[in-house]
Design a protein that fits this description.
The chain is an all-alpha fold and 165 residues long. It has a single domain (9-164), classed as Up-down Bundle (Ferritin). Helix content is 82%, strand content 0%. It contains 5 helices and no strands. The longest helix is centred in the C-terminal third of the chain and has 33 residues, at 132-164. The protein is elongated. The model has no long low-confidence stretch (mean pLDDT 93). This is Ferritin-like domain-containing protein. Residues 44-71 form a coiled coil. It comes from Hymenobacter gummosus. Keywords: Coiled coil.
Length: 165
């Protein structure tokens, strides 16, 4: 348990930041597996790019933690753990290459949607509390997550899902 009792918006922000830090560090471990499972070159390269971006996002969260004099490690994001576990189960399925790629996009978008919600919430809390620099860094990551979701959506709708039919 992170706090005996959540008493302030600062407490809630810290809880969100620790959750995001855990989520992103888990994702750094999972993305290479997803890239390896992707058969389509564009999808594989997209996962590899997102891994580099996620590593930068972890560094941003570390900067935010330092600026708030908080260690963000030590917690486990249960939601990300579940999403990754679901993705790993999916990757073990006996599927055609095309269907596996479509499934990987679906699993990735679930992760992106979770991150979009979490970063949006944390950015709002930080802004409300007057942590302008932290809010700006969180919004930058939020924009990256939204862009990744858009790219995944376009790849699925315009190409990979058609191949899986």
């Amino acid at each position: 348990m992170l706090f005996d009792k959540l008493e302030t918006l600062d407490d809630l922000l810290l809880m969100c930041l620790k959750d995001l830090y855990s989520a992103e560090t888990q994702l750094v471990e999972a993305l290479p597996q997803m890239a390896a499972a992707a058969k389509d070159g564009r999808l594989r390269r997209g996962f590899e790019r997102h891994l580099r971006e996620t590593e930068e996002q972890v560094q941003r969260l570390e900067r935010i933690g330092k600026s708030l004099n908080q260690d963000l490690s030590g917690e486990t994001c249960v939601a990300m753990k579940g999403l990754i576990k679901e993705g790993q189960k999916l990757m073990s399925e006996n599927a055609t290459d095309e269907v596996m790629d479509a499934a990987l996009i679906g699993a990735s978008q679930k992760i992106e949607h979770y991150e979009i919600a979490a970063y949006g919430t944390a950015a709002h809390y930080a802004e409300r509390l007057g942590y302008t620099d932290a809010a700006e860094l969180l919004r930058k990551t939020l924009e990256e997550e939204q862009l990744t979701d858009t790219k995944l959506n376009e790849l699925a709708k315009n190409y990979l899902n058609q191949k899986a039919e």
